[in-house]
Structure formats: structure tokens, C-alpha cells
Design goal:
alpha/beta; 10 strands; 8 helices; binds 2-amino-2-deoxy-6-O-phosphono-alpha-D-glucopyranose
């Protein structure tokens, strides 16, 4: 596990974009797992900048998004489809055929739809690099506390905490989605490399529990402890409750000297 501590949200976004850009340059047909949320905005902004400068070609990249709200059409301003097109897809040269986001408009046949999403990931050859955010309650994707650590893509009921966190994005009186389609923890753990971004004080407990707490379905991000290649990029506030900061700093220094390709 690598932990990169950054002093601001902006630096965090640049560092994440650098890692994704390097992965795309090393493998132009990268299978890239993507996430939504405000923490991702800096990374997408910087990836778009690199693309516009002519430094980054997405024409052969295949993307799979982690999740989508159930009941929101792609045109809804709060759908993850909308977020992805507005902040990233519309500004780079991804082939639209290579973009996959769970469909939030399906009505029934959920298990079948979700296994077809898993099949699409398998048929593409698996995900090379999966980007993740983290919820205040330690969720990744929409794998809420108590999600099976072996879970696959499925329909998931959102926790009250997550619904409350999202309320501010919806109009007064508007019905807030109570369910989502999300990749499972088992799906996420199969990606070759994981990159988790967190910023701000509201994520500090989730980050400390995920990295230094026990592996538990109560904090689904703690399952990343089972993965052989995870990089956390956090800002000072999100990393504030980590007890072993000094050790992570030394690990990073030695990694830069001994195995710089991991960075
Ligand atoms: C939602 C998404 C998660 C994301 C989280 C954090 O819950 N399903 O994938 O990690 O939001 O969002 P933010 O970055 O806005 O805090």
C-alpha cells in the first residue's frame, strides 16, 4: 500500500491525473475504472488539460464506471452519466462505444443486467486501473457498510447517511434516489491496480479506518487491505487521523529510489 499525502485538493487532483496519464501512456488500450464525486473533479480537469495539450490520447481506452443511481435518466443533472459527460467524456477523445456506465433506468431484471455488466468487464479483459473515491461512512462505489466483501455488481439500497450526504445536490422536495447499481467489492478487488482519492475533514475517519482499522464490512474500503497494489492519495485533512504518517512518508521515499515504476 502506498499513501501519498498532498497539501491541497488541487495537488491531489494533479497527482491522480499524473498516475492515470502514465497508465494510459504505458498502455494506450487501458481498461480504466472511473468514479464520480466532487473529489474527482480536479483529476478530470487535469486529464482534460493534458489531452487538450496534445499529450494524452484516449482513443483506445475503455472505461467502466463504478456506479449509478437507480431511477435517474442520463439527462438528469445529478446522474453519474451526466457528471461523467460534463466533467470528462465530452472533453476527451474517448470512443463512445468504449464507455460503460451502469444503466440507472432499468426497471426489473436487475440481477441479469448486473451480471451483463460484470461480463462486459470480463470480456474487455478486466480493469487495469480503478479509480475510487470514498464515502463518509467508508463506502467505495456504493458498497454501503455491511456489504459483502465478496459482492459483485448489484442493486444496492443506499444508507440514510449517504442519502443525507446527497440531499444538497437535489432540488427542494425532489425525490432522492434510495438505490443504486454498483460494482461490488469483489469486482473492485479484481482490478489490477487501485487508486483511492480522499479530501477534506469529513473523510478523515473513513480513511483512518480503511487503512489502519480491521478489515470489516462495516467500512467497506478496508477491504482494499487485501489488494496487492493500492495507492491512496489524500490531502492533509483527510489524512489527519492516520497514526503512521511518518512510516508512509518513508515508504514513499524508498519507493521513489528502489521501485519508481510503482509511483
Ligand atoms: C458517492 C459515490 C462514491 C464516491 C462518493 C464520494 O457516494 N458513489 O463512489 O466516492 O460519492 O463523493 P465526494 O467525492 O463528493 O465526497
Amino acid at each position: 500500500m502506498l499513501l501519498v499525502l498532498k497539501s491541497s485538493e488541487e495537488e491531489l487532483g494533479c497527482e491522480a491525473a499524473r498516475i492515470v496519464a502514465n497508465a494510459v501512456r504505458a498502455n494506450p488500450a487501458l481498461r480504466l475504472g472511473l468514479a464520480t464525486g466532487s473529489t474527482m473533479l480536479g483529476m478530470y480537469k487535469d486529464l482534460v488539460r493534458l489531452h487538450k495539450q496534445g499529450n494524452l490520447d484516449f482513443s483506445r481506452v475503455i472505461t467502466f464506471n463504478l456506479d449509478e443511481y437507480l431511477g435517474l435518466a442520463p439527462s438528469h443533472a445529478q446522474s453519474f452519466h451526466h457528471f461523467m459527460y460534463q466533467n470528462f467524456f465530452s472533453h476527451v477523445n474517448l470512443n463512445p462505444r468504449n464507455i460503460r456506465i451502469p444503466d440507472g433506468t432499468i426497471k426489473g431484471g436487475y440481477a441479469q443486467y448486473c451480471s451483463s455488466y460484470e461480463e462486459a468487464i470480463r470480456n474487455a479483459g478486466g480493469i487495469d486501473l480503478q479509480v475510487l473515491g470514498i464515502g463518509r461512512n467508508g463506502h467505495i462505489g456504493f458498497n454501503e457498510p455491511t456489504s459483502s466483501l465478496g459482492s459483485r455488481t448489484r442493486l444496492k439500497v443506499l444508507s440514510k447517511e449517504t442519502i443525507e450526504d446527497n440531499r444538497r445536490f437535489f432540488a427542494l422536495g425532489e425525490k432522492i434516489p434510495e438505490c443504486a447499481i454498483t460494482m461490488g467489492i469483489g469486482t473492485i478487488l479484481e482490478a489490477k491496480r487501485l487508486l483511492l482519492l480522499a479530501s477534506g475533514p469529513s473523510k478523515a475517519a473513513a480513511i483512518a479506518n480503511a487503512i489502519e482499522g480491521p478489515i470489516s464490512a462495516a467500512v467497506t474500503a478496508s477491504a482494499l487491505q487485501l489488494h496487492p497494489d493500492v495507492t491512496f492519495i489524500v490531502d492533509r485533512e483527510a489524512g489527519a487521523l492516520l497514526k503512521q504518517q511518518e512510516y508512509y512518508r518513508r515508504v514513499l521515499e524508498m519507493t521513489a529510489i528502489l521501485t519508481p515504476e510503482r509511483l
